[in-house]
Write a sequence for this structure.
């Protein structure tokens, strides 16, 4: 009798544990990416990479974010430099993010940042926070 009871408990635990693992595998099937860059011209190859990963990943492609920080942060305020990148990022569903810490340090006014870009307080911290959420990260 005890053997049957133990078998039922073991079977029940096995079934519920297996369900939890399957749910995690479904949830983790999206591939999310974040790239931290210091130079606006690097947006071109980064966006090409996002496009290729989107093709490769298919339905598993999740989010793709590009964080711009460093001493050249002022370049994001130049429409001639940014317009084509903003358009391409928007078409790909890529989020462009400006580092507020860099903007403050190098005296870039928030009102000069293109409206399509998000500003975060600290780009490096934001990058680590995304990594903790499982994002694949690259810094250039």
């Amino acid at each position: 009798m005890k053997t049957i009871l133990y078998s039922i408990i073991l079977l029940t635990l096995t079934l519920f544990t297996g369900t939890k693992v399957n749910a995690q595998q479904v949830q983790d099937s999206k591939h999310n990416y974040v790239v931290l860059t210091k130079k606006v011209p690097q947006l071109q190859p980064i966006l090409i990479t996002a496009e290729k990963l989107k093709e490769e990943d298919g339905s598993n492609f999740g989010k793709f974010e590009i964080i711009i920080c460093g001493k050249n942060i002022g370049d994001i305020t130049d429409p001639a430099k940014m317009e084509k990148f903003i358009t391409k990022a928007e078409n790909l569903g890529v989020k462009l993010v400006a580092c507020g810490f860099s903007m403050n340090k190098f005296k870039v006014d928030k009102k000069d940042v293109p409206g399509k870009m998000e500003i975060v307080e600290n780009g490096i911290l934001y990058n680590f926070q995304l990594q903790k959420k499982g994002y694949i990260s690259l810094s250039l």
Summary: The radius of gyration is 21 Å. The longest strand covers residues 61-68. The helical segments are 2-27, 43-57, 79-92, 100-105, 123-132.
